[in-house]
Amino acid sequence: MSMPRVLLVLLFQISYFVAIATIHNPGNLPQVAFISPGDYTIGGILSVHFSSPDKMCSDRIREFAVYQKLESIAFAVDEINQRNDLLPNRTLGFVILDDCSKTTSSLTRALHFVQTHSPSAGVETSHGKINDFDVIGLIGAESSANTVQTADLLSLFKVPQISYISTSPLLSNKRIFPYFSRVVPSDKLQVEVLVDLITHFNWTYVSTVYEEGSYGVEFNKAFKNLAEKRGVCMGVSLIVRGYLTDKTADKVVQDLLTVPRARAVVLVVRNRDMATLFRSVRQLGRVGYFRWLGSDTWGGNVQDFLGIEDVGQGSLTIGFQSRFVNRFDNYLKYLTASNGSYNPWFNEFFESRYNCKFYPGSNDTLCDRNKTFAADYSPLWTSSLVIDAVYTYAYALHDVIRGCKGESNEKKCVEPEKMLKAIRNLTFEGEHGFVSFDEFGDGSATYTVRTLRRVNGGYSLDEIALWDTNIRSFTFFNPDLITWPTASMSSNRFLVSTCSDPCNPGYQAVTTQPHCCWYCEQCYINEITVLKNDKPTCLICPKEGVFTWPDSTRTKCLPIEINVLSIPGLVGTVICILLLLVVVGTLIIIAIFMRNIESPLLEVSCKELSFLMLMGIIAANILTFSVVVPPTGSSCILVATAFQLSFTFTYGPFLVKINRMYRTHKAQMLNMEAKFTGRMYNVVFTLMISFTQVGKYSFRSKSKDESGDKLN
Predict the structure, then answer these.
(1) Nearest-angstrom CA–CA distance, 540 and 517
(2) What is the distance between the alpha carbons of residues 109 and 103, in angstroms, rounded to a whole number?
(3) Residue 361's CB: how many other CB atoms inside 10 A?
(4) Cα dist. 646→279, 484, 631, 638, 653 in Å?
(5) How far is CA 646 from the centre of its chain?
């Protein structure tokens, strides 16, 4: 045994004697054990009472669902003892201890199943003082935090343990918890169900509230990792330390409201904390604002929502698909104080449920000893899991005993190692479904998603989805049963739990922090909005072959329709008439020019340049007729080049003429002869300007084509 384990054993020894001293004081504790003797005994640790800060257990009994779990163990043991095919000629018994909803108490209770007590120390029960709990295995504890503590101790002493509800992934570690098994899967699968549920509704921004301890911390860690892989961002993650009070619950709600767009909230807390939190939600006027999603720690029964149904209505809780055990429910609902008194906690549960006393004071109501639970009884889905845990021990013990034939001491033959091996090899059809165990000791199950809804004046938990652990996906989904608040439906806000609103067409999403948040940026006029990696992105309309342009919705590119002007059309006719008038006017000017070509005025202004200007004007007007005829590739090139030349012949001669006049005037002032002012030079200069303009145009056109190709 390693040194840390030796120190752990010493610590447990000290804890044991402290526990014995506490338990042996009858005035300090309520009843802590429910015992039924048998040839072979199954141990059990359940949370019957609430914890107390100043003593091991408080006097406050927990909800009625705990009583249903207690009776499930007793019912299954009695049923097995009445069978002839299972453990014939042998009886099962049980010892159930109350850990008072505290991890340290779970450790002290577990010590009673690994120690041989002295005659002077033990647990006081209605059966007397029981000093030795020699068990074939243990069922429990209820919470994962308590189970982690007890499983480490029980594995150290090779005591098999089966849980019906503890789902912490830590418990799958067989190096630390080799003797632990459970009839349900690990929370790793429950997290997958939760994330699948969130993504089904396109909720990408969620918050979490989780309890302190191994269960809550590990669940939140696994959920956060998987959610981020699936594109879901975390709003706030709030840890609940200890039990919630009204003040701390108000603080949790206010912290959730710091990220108001994260309206989907995952709760990984106990029933008691859920109820306190929901009361604060109502007090702060936020009923219907959040969509609550729960793990299997709360919301498994309609009774969990007693008095807070308005807040819990529409919440989505995940649990294991489990059939109600009708024969058990028919037995339990008709128990009374007269025939149910063998359970030492019956009176406490009855008094708490009906607000009465069997031994009343002056202001108390007397309990009816003949009253049953039938009038307001609700079946518990976890009852079948508890019964399957008991039957797992029964079947495993049956197999071990069958292999012990010929042994002189049968009980000595029933060793922990043999029991563990028999448990892991078991397969049978249980009350909740098929029972089997994988290499990690985890069971298989189908998850169910339930929602609280109002039906016929009352409330019920209805199944809306099933998630198969084998194929890891939903096999059934009916969201129509979910209750959505009317105000939220009209504004369509309750159905949205995202960090940012979707971008309209013509805009793209620019991601910020966290990665599911963004702002919308407008696209350019020639761009459309497309989805790229589920994000709106701007895309330039292509122009290969056919030029395209965004449509009115800015979601697709359409070919640009070619509009050709024609002479028969109104616009084409008007253009032609105007051009004819301009051409006629220009021809009249040319005629006047030719008639007075020898005049001194034209000689001074260089008649060659004036003639080129007139030719450029008339050519530009004649070329304008090309816009009213259907274009071709060749005609477009010709027209573009001709237009450059015609306009250049208009301003080019004018520029040369101004330059000639300036140089001539300057030469006269200096009594010099102006150079390069002859007619030939004037024409050459004009042609140089014209062809320079055409070359510049061709170069720019080529550059535009190349840049356009790069953009596309």
Answers:
(1) 24
(2) 10
(3) 6
(4) 86, 74, 19, 12, 11
(5) 69
Hey, is 41 helix, strand or coil? strand
Question: pLDDT tens across 27-70, in order?
Answer: 344 567 899 999 999 999 999 998 888 787 888 999 999 999 99
Selection from 157, 143, 48, 56 nearest residue 96 by Cα: 48
pLDDT digits (tens, 9 = 90+) for 357-392: 999 988 899 999 999 999 989 888 889 999 999 999
Distance of alpha carbon 504 from alpha carbon 585, whole angstroms = 56
Structure tokens, 593: 């020019």
Token duo for residue 207: 């918050």
Pairing label, strands 427-429, 434-436: antiparallel
Q: How far apart are CA 107 and CA 568, in angstroms?
A: 101
The whole-chain average pLDDT of the chain stands at: 83
CB 75 within 8 A of CB 331: yes
CA distance linking residue 159 with residue 156, whole number of Å: 8
Residue 194, judged by CB atoms within 10 A of its CB (0-12, 13-18, 19+), counts as buried
pLDDT, tens digit, for every residue of 87-143? 999 999 999 999 998 888 898 899 999 854 444 445 544 444 444 589 999 998 988
8 Å CB contact between 209 and 238? yes
> Residues for the chain: how many in total?
712
For 243-342, strand residue ranges (E) read: 264-268, 291-294, 316-320
Q: Decide if 620 contacts 690 (C-beta within 8 A).
A: no
Amino acid 422 reads A
Which residues does 474 contact at the CB level (< 8 Å), separation at least 6? 196, 200, 465, 466, 467, 468
Is the CB of residue 616 less than 8 Å from the CB of residue 656? Answer: no
Alpha-helical (H) ranges within 82-130 are 103-111
The whole-angstrom separation of Cα 274 and Cα 277 is: 5
Q: Tell whether the torsion through CA atoms of 412, 416, 421 and 424 is positive or negative.
A: positive
